[in-house]
Design brief:
Layout (H helix, E strand, L loop, with lengths): L1 H5 L17 E4 L6 H6 L1 H16 L6 E7 L10 H17 L5 E6 L1 E3 L8 H7 L10 E6 H10 L6 E4 H9 L12
Parallel strand pairs: 1-2, 2-3, 4-5
Antiparallel strand pairs: 5-6
Helix pairs in contact: 3-4, 5-7
Length: 183
């Protein structure tokens, strides 16, 4: 929130049942850990849709900024992760049919100070994520860039990479926890 304050923006966390007058409502909250998603896919799907409807009611005149993690465009809905991605996609379609001004962002994998050690970028940094056959594409961004771009309503600065490239760049020192990417 310090990045918001530096831009003269007052940011505050609110509960979905709070109502008030705001210029913008950022809808960011969602169960996002694989453990929660796998443990309760139905609850996760309900949470995504219920929280979205509640967030829309916080201030009906505010610009509504929806942000959710990147997921597969055509998820395999027969898995808990696929159900999660399908619910996010459903939420985005739902938002298109509201009479609200909505900006939607797909958030990349983020890294930076205080990052969750369970995800792949910190594991690349400490060297434990190496998988020589993993060549899946990822989009990554520094958390400071994500916050600045959301505050300024700009496209998020990010880099497309693979797990192998990410591992090598962090382990061999070309990138570090402070590395930020320009477009």
């Amino acid at each position: 929130m310090n990045e918001f304050a530096q831009r003269g923006i007052t940011a505050m966390g609110i509960e979905p049942t709070d109502v008030g007058e705001f210029d913008r409502v950022y809808h960011l909250a969602c169960p996002a850990t694989p453990e929660k998603i796998r443990g309760d896919p139905i609850g996760t799907m309900n949470s995504i849709m219920d929280a979205t409807r509640q967030a829309l009611n916080v201030c009906p005149t505010a610009l509504f900024i929806n942000a959710s993690s990147q997921g597969a465009a055509y998820p395999n809905v027969n898995t808990p992760m696929g159900a999660y991605n399908a619910a996010k996609l459903c939420m985005e379609v739902y938002l298109r049919y509201t009479n609200r001004t909505v900006i939607s962002y797909r958030l990349p994998a983020v890294y930076g100070p205080g990052m969750n050690r369970k995800f792949f970028i910190p594991q690349c940094i400490d060297g434990s994520a190496y998988c020589p056959t993993e060549n899946r594409d990822y989009t990554i961004a520094h958390i400071s860039d994500v916050v600045e771009d959301l505050a300024d309503l700009n496209p998020i600065r990010a880099r497309n990479t693979t797990l192998i490239e990410t591992y090598h760049k962090f382990v061999f020192g070309e990138w570090n926890i402070d590395t930020r990417f320009d477009k």
